[in-house]
């Protein structure tokens, strides 16, 4: 019941909203703009090589935060990538029980796009198509980072994390306890999700942050126009994200414990609306909140897809 806790470190802790936006535009450290094929491999001392793809709109990163094993990913320069080789295994992980890496693609915001108040986020839509493999232990997940204010987005690890698991294999379970009881789900975007929540007892370490995870009850390899505002509104209603918080970063990838070679993001997109919505009303009145429902059985996904 452990998972990835660490976001790639930002170069500095900035204190001005404009400066925060500049860092976010650089994709958490930047990377060379790529117009053709790209290949990224980790090696000792270089666990987080990055490259900008999709005409600079996205960034690739193997994000091998918890292992020293060899890991490579490649893409054609568009919003896609494949894990081409992986030495990841539980025995090679630095922190026992946690995944070794999160090879992923992240949205690189344009000027003035992020950070943005979650209350006026509007139709933040994302589509993602993947190819999974029948071996290994991994999840297929969005990783959305948020902060209490715009400057908080420049922290080494922002204090709020929202994950959306659309698939998994090998038995991983989201961090924290099941919310709403073992037989409950929430329906968002017309699909049922199991919800898990983790609240740290203190924030003495940068990795002690609050996490809410939405695990899709019926797994899938692709989503179309997933409405992130609805997940964020539900998390606000549950008290896991502040209503006045800010969206910092949107990522999609594979948390891998073992194996992972062949996992692929075939296409990915994220777009922010041109116009912001007015802030939603008080708690539980936003209109974008999903409908909770009881579901027979525990609904736990232990064996994976």
UniProtKB/TrEMBL annotation:
Pfam families: Glyco_hydro_12. Residues 1-21 form the signal peptide. It comes from the Bacteria. Residues 296-305 have a biased composition (Gly residues). Keywords: Carbohydrate metabolism, Glycosidase, Hydrolase, Polysaccharide degradation, Signal. Residues 274-305 are annotated as: Disordered. PANTHER family: BLR1656 PROTEIN (PTHR34002), XYLOGLUCAN-SPECIFIC ENDO-BETA-1,4-GLUCANASE A (PTHR34002:SF9). Belongs to the glycosyl hydrolase 12 (cellulase H) family. This is Glycoside hydrolase.
């Amino acid at each position: 019941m452990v998972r990835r806790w660490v976001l790639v470190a930002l170069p500095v802790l900035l204190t001005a909203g404009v400066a925060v936006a500049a860092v976010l535009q650089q994709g958490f450290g930047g990377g060379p703009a790529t117009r053709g094929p790209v290949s990224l491999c980790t090696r000792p001392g270089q666990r987080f090589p990055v490259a900008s793809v999709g005409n600079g709109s996205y960034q690739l990163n193997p994000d091998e935060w918890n292992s020293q094993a060899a890991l490579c990913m490649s893409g054609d320069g568009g919003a896609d990538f494949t894990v081409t080789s992986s030495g990841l295994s539980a025995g090679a992980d630095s922190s026992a029980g946690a995944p070794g890496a999160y090879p992923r693609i992240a949205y690189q915001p344009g000027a003035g796009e992020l950070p943005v108040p979650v209350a006026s986020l509007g139709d933040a839509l994302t589509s993602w198509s993947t190819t999974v493999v029948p071996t290994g232990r991994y999840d297929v997940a969005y990783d959305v980072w948020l902060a209490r204010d715009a400057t908080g987005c420049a922290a080494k690890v922002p204090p709020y994390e929202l994950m959306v698991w659309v698939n998994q294999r090998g038995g991983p379970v989201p961090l924290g306890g099941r919310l709403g009881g073992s037989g409950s789900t929430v329906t968002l975007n017309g699909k049922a999700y199991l919800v898990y929540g983790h609240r740290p007892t203190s924030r003495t370490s940068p990795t002690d942050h609050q996490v809410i995870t939405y695990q899709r009850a019926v797994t899938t390899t692709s989503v179309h126009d997933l409405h992130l505002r609805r997940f964020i509104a539900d998390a606000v209603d549950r008290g896991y994200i502040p209503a006045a918080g800010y969206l910092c970063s949107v990522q999609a990838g594979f948390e891998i414990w073992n194996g992972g070679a062949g996992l692929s993001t075939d296409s990915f997109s994220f777009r922010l609306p041109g116009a912001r919505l007015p802030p939603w009303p008080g708690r539980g009145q936003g209109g974008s909140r999903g409908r909770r429902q009881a579901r027979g059985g525990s609904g736990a996904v232990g064996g994976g897809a």
